[in-house]
Structure formats: C-alpha cells, structure tokens
From TrEMBL:
The lineage of its organism: Eukaryota, Sar, Stramenopiles, Ochrophyta, Bolidophyceae. This is Phytanoyl-CoA dioxygenase. Gene3D superfamilies: q2cbj1_9rhob like domain (2.60.120.620). It comes from the Eukaryota. SUPFAM superfamilies: Clavaminate synthase-like (SSF51197). PANTHER family: JMJC DOMAIN-CONTAINING PROTEIN, PHYTANOYL-COA DIOXYGENASE-RELATED-RELATED.
C-alpha cells in the first residue's frame, strides 16, 4: 500500500483523550470573522433556494417570522423541520468545507487514535479491521441545520411548527453493527434511464460523525446537541435500544436512523456545550438528540459533515454518491431522508426526465448558488480524492 497523500496543514489542537473516554470532542476551528462569513453564505444559499432570507428579530412580527420559517422548512426540509435539518447538499461553499485538508487531518487523527489502534470502545472484528485504512478516506455529502427559536417556531401555540428537535437516536443500526458494521442502507433502485447514476450497493460505514457549528450552543435548551457520553464502551451491553416504545408494528429504523426509546439509555442523554465555529465529533455508537427546546433568540446554524475511512464498501458508496453529486441529485428512495421520495416534488411543471427520476427515488436539488467555472474543479489533490473524483493511490 502506498503512503497516503499528506497536506501540509495547520491542524488545531485536539483533545483525543476526551474523545476516547467520552466518545465525543469539540474542536475550536473557525475565527469569529470566518464564522460570520460562512454563516452569511449559508443563509444566502437558503435565500437563493427559497426566496426567503432567514431573520429572527423585530422589526418583523413573530407572525411574519413564523410564516417565513414555515415556508423555508416546507421547501427545504424532508424531515418536516425536525432538527432544523434542511436539504441543501450541493454548493461550492459546502464542498470547500468538506474538502478542507485541516478538517480531514483532524478526522484522520481521531480515527488513528481510536479505531486505528483498537482503543477500548473502538475495537473492530479482525476481518473488518483489516479492510479499512484510517489514513485515507472520503467525505460524504450531507445537509445543513437551520433551526429557528421556539418563539418563532411555535408562535402563538400554532399547531404547525417551523422547526423542532431531533428525538434521541443513532445514525446506525445496532443490529447491523453486531453483524458486521454495515448499516442497513437498502440498495438504490436500478437505473431505468441513462440519465440516472449507475446503481451501486448503497452502503457506507461512518464511524465518527461530525458537524461544524456556526452559532453558539453553550447553554442548554438552545436547540443544540445532546448525547449520552461513554456509550461507545457499553454499546453492546444494551439488549434492546428501542424496547420501551417499539411494538404494535411501529418502525424503529428509517434507513440508517434508529430511534432510541430505551429509557435506561435516554436518561443519560444530556446537553453538551459547543461554541460557535467549533467542529464537533462523536462516535456512531453514541446515542444523541437535539435539545427539545430552543429558548434562545438566534437561529441554530450548522453544516453536517461526514467522513468515511477507505475500505471496500465505502469506496463503492462514494463512487455512487459522486454520481449523484455530479448531477445534483438526491436519492430519497428507501427512506434515506426519512420520507418516501416518490411523494416529494412533482407538480404540473415537472419535466418528463424529473418525473422518471422521482419515480426511481431520485430528486433533483435546486440549482447551486455558485457552480464554479465550467470544467474546473475547485479541489486540490486531497480534495479530489475525498470527493471520489480521483482514486487514492
Ligand atoms: Fe444523528
């Protein structure tokens, strides 16, 4: 195996010991100026996609702001506003963050000190361990968070909420981890047209999750992350993650999403303070949520990031995802975005091509705000590998 490509980057200090002990770590990353610039960029992307610029304060009335944010959520959120998750995947500004060599350098450091050396709580079966290389990898294409304060979301006790919390969950399937670490992504539907990306087994293994926070969640009940520290070490001691609510045919998994209702677990979930501009990493075995309430006055803005260690299933997954990225498509078949994609979109002005795509579980994301110069990739050598444009050596 050839030596991995290294970028000469200035990597921030990382308290890896904290990650190893508690299963999560916060890493200050952006300066106040960078936070403001990137936050403004994200809000402008939202405006470009929805014709609404997200605002939170007078002189606008609460009723106006409520309607504004309901409109934004209805146009962008396939989670129905849960977690403030908005379906903005494709933009050059997001690609730049995903391929920032400093971030990947941090990720590799965390991987190497945890899974890469079988630290307690990060052991892999030998047959799995040998197939992953924690010095190389891929970025994934994920979404953003824009969660407005409850004063706006729940204005006047209206039934319709613009945004809300994410209930406790895992973004993996405990059963699949037991049986070989592959989450239960169903394969995408076979292509019915040359316009569709080639169908590949849509499985990935994302051992460490991540977001870049562009607002402050230092206080509880401001819409931020909550999690149960240390569960990476006791993950396999939990007999049934969903037992206290599942039954009567209730579905617990939506693609890789597993709702956690076992009260012996949820009682351990607590607020974790994260400062604006920080990268936040947590192990996939840590059950997590976002705060039930957002009693702050500012919107929560974050970019979800994901990185996959180099290995057979992740290489196939990235090849498939790159096909979507090149065409600006999102796959919503099989509940990947918690919804049935065939129910999304449509309308009288839908083209025949988009109809066919939608029938196969793909929808086309609205045009990117910044496409870059035609034919010119904005990535360096490592970025092209992270995006799956070039093979790792
Ligand atoms: Fe999650």
């Amino acid at each position: 195996m050839n030596a991995p490509v290294q970028s000469p980057v200035d990597t921030p200090e990382i308290d890896v010991g904290h990650f190893l002990e508690h299963g999560y770590v916060s890493v200050p990353f952006l300066s106040p100026t960078e936070i403001e610039e990137l936050r403004t960029t994200i809000l402008k992307i939202v405006e470009h996609r929805t014709q609404h610029f997200p605002v939170y304060h007078p002189p606008y009335t609460l009723e106006y702001l409520h309607n504004l944010h309901c409109s934004i959520s209805s146009k962008l959120s396939s989670t129905g506003g849960a977690g403030g998750v908005m379906d903005i995947h494709y933009d050059l500004a997001l690609d730049r963050i995903r391929t920032d060599p400093r971030i990947f350098s941090i990720v590799k450091h965390i991987w190497s000190q945890s899974y890469g050396c079988s630290a307690p709580g990060f052991e892999l079966p030998p047959n799995v361990f040998s197939s992953y290389d924690f010095t190389r990898g891929y970025c994934t294409i994920d979404r953003i968070c824009l969660r407005c304060p409850d004063s706006i979301s729940n204005y006047s006790g209206r039934k319709k909420r613009a945004t809300k919390c994410l209930t406790p969950h895992l973004d993996c399937c405990p059963e699949s981890i037991h049986s070989g670490l592959l989450p239960p992504f169903p394969p995408p539907p076979p292509p019915s047209s040359s316009n569709l990306p080639s169908a590949k087994p849509c499985r990935m293994w994302r051992p460490v999750q991540c977001f870049l926070l562009l607002s402050s969640n230092l206080l509880p009940s401001t819409g931020g992350i909550e999690l149960a520290p240390g569960y990476h070490k006791t993950f396999f001691d939990v007999d049934d993650w969903t037992s206290s609510r599942c039954g009567d045919g209730e579905q617990s998994c939506f693609g890789p999403f597993t709702a956690v209702r076992n009260r012996s677990v949820t009682k351990d979930i607590r607020h974790i303070p994260v400062s604006a501009g920080s990268l936040f990493f947590w192990d996939e075995k840590i059950p997590h949520a976002t705060a039930l309430a957002h009693l702050g006055s500012e919107g929560r803005v974050a970019i979800y990031l994901g990185f996959l260690p180099h290995g057979p299933c992740n290489s196939l997954y990235k090849e498939w995802e790159r096909g979507l990225w090149e065409r600006g498509l999102i796959w919503v078949g099989g509940g990947q975005n918690w919804i049935n994609g065939k129910e999304v979109g449509g309308g009288e002005d839908e083209s025949e091509e988009d109809k066919e795509l939608r029938a196969s579980g793909f929808i086309r994301e609205k045009q990117r705000i910044e496409k870059g110069q035609e034919g010119v990739q904005p990535f360096d050598a490592v970025g092209r590998k992270l995006m799956g444009i070039e093979e790792w050596d």
